[in-house]
Every structure is written in C-alpha cells, then in structure tokens.
Amino acid sequence: MDGPHARGFDVTVAHPARVYDYWLGGKDNFAADRAAAEQAIAAYPDIVFSVRANRAFLARAVRYLAGEAGIRQFLDIGTGIPATSNTHEVAQSVAPESRVVYVDNDPVVLAHARALLTSGPHGVTSYLDADLRDTGRVLSTAAETLDFSQPVAVMLMAILQHIGDDDNPWAIVATLLDAVPAGSYLALSHPASDIEAEAQGELARRLNQTMAEGVTLRDHAQVTRFFTGLELVEPGLVRVPEWRPASDLEASSPAGLWGGVGRKN
Ligand SMILES: C[S@@+](CC[C@H](N)C(=O)[O-])C[C@H]1O[C@@H](n2cnc3c(N)ncnc32)[C@H](O)[C@@H]1O
Known about the structure:
Low-confidence stretches: 1-7
Helix content: 25-40%
Number of strands: 8
Radius of gyration: 17 Å
Shape: globular
Bound molecules: S-adenosylmethionine
Number of helices: 11
Mean pLDDT: 95
Largest sheet: 8 strands, mixed
C-alpha cells in the first residue's frame, strides 16, 4: 500500500492503526507510519513483543468471555486493522452464535471492514466507523446488532491511550458500562507509564511528535480506575502476558501494557 494519496487517505501523517500494524508485521501502512514506528522501536525495542503480547491477551480474554463467562455479545472499540485472532473469529470458534460490533475511526480500518464481517452463519458481525468519544452514536448504532438487555463484553484494547485526560476517558468508559446490564464485562489493555518507564516514555514522546492522535501512558492506579464498580476477574490488572497465560514462557514475554477483565455485578 503506497503512493502520496493512495485510496484518498492522508498518508503523510502517521496513524495509530497503521503504526500498530507495522509493529505487528502487517502490510497496511505507509512511509510516514513506518518512519514513526521505527523511531518508536529505536526508543523501546520491546514494543514489537508488547504488541504481540497484547494481541495474544485479546484472544485469551475473548476465549475466557465466550467460554467460562458465557458471553455472546461483544462491542470491540478500537478494532484495528484485521490481524491474527480477530474478536469474532475467537468468539465464534467457542460460541458460533456470538454477535460482534466493531468500532474504529481510522479510514484504513474501514477499508478492511469486509474482512471483519466474515461472520459464521450462526453469528453476526457489524462495523461502525465512529469515534469512541461519541458514546451516544456508538451505543445507539451498536443496539441495532446487540441486545442491550443481555450481557455485553465491552472491549477497549490498547485504545484509551489515544484519549487524553482532557477528554476524561474514565467518564467515557463509565457511560459505556452504564448502558450494559449486570453480568456484562469490561476487557481492557493500556500502555503503562510504570513499566520500563524511561524507554516507554521516550517512545510516547516520539509518537506524539509524529502521529495524528496523541498517546498518554497511564500507571497501574490510573488504569485500575477504569474498572471502578466492577469486580476484577483473577488475576486482576496485570502485565498482559501474565493474564491467564498458556505457559510460563508466555507469561515472561516482555510487554509494557496493563490488562484486565472486570465483571459488572
Ligand atoms: C493500538 S490499536 C489496537 C487495535 C486492537 N484493539 C488490538 O488491541 O490489537 C488502536 C486502535 O484504536 C483506534 N482508535 C484510536 N483512537 C480512536 C477513537 N477516538 N475512536 C475510535 N477508534 C480509535 C485506532 O484507529 C486503532 O485502530
């Protein structure tokens, strides 16, 4: 994918979905994204392990939600460019009737939405091009696919770092959780300001010079606040590879994100 205005996107400014895609080894990125991603790698080389650990956490969390927790509805906000183990693939491999609404505001993700809409015959997936901050539109459109009288897993994987404190991400999360009934879940990961603090701080500083959306790292206490009023599922809010890892090797992978799953009782 290249050229100055390929497919009408502004390719001269780096965007989070495409920078993340580059770190994951994907092809859906432009020169500006690759340059920003490489500058970030130079500051914090473990970012390439971190993003893979985050994807693996996403898959384990969805498997838990669809399996042990019996969830059949997923609202996945900040979907990203399709990669390994997308939410509907994992959920429908456990429970084929799972319904998934994807939300993202990047035009490249929108262009790939078809790949996310390949639901199995018993389930449903839909895609909404919207900003997380527009919670009214996110919830009203999601209600066309999801039944909000039944439990929903709200997923905010590696997205809230793009919502600065001025936009009060805690209020945004609370609004989403107010809209779902008891028995619903929040699954969330967030880049940490208190894991490899110096290197990740430099990574964020570099991204904030080059990327369209800013990055705000948060510490364990600030990320814990997103789960206010929820019961954290064991093992609580931990480094993402330590959340129900498949092996000790997986648990020891470098990763600079906090991740957890909480239940609304
Ligand atoms: C780092 S990627 C994470 C992708 C995926 N959730 C994962 O964990 O693998 C963050 C995604 O959030 C999207 N995003 C950032 N700010 C957003 C906003 N305000 N509203 C909707 N999507 C947003 C980006 O376009 C990008 O696709």
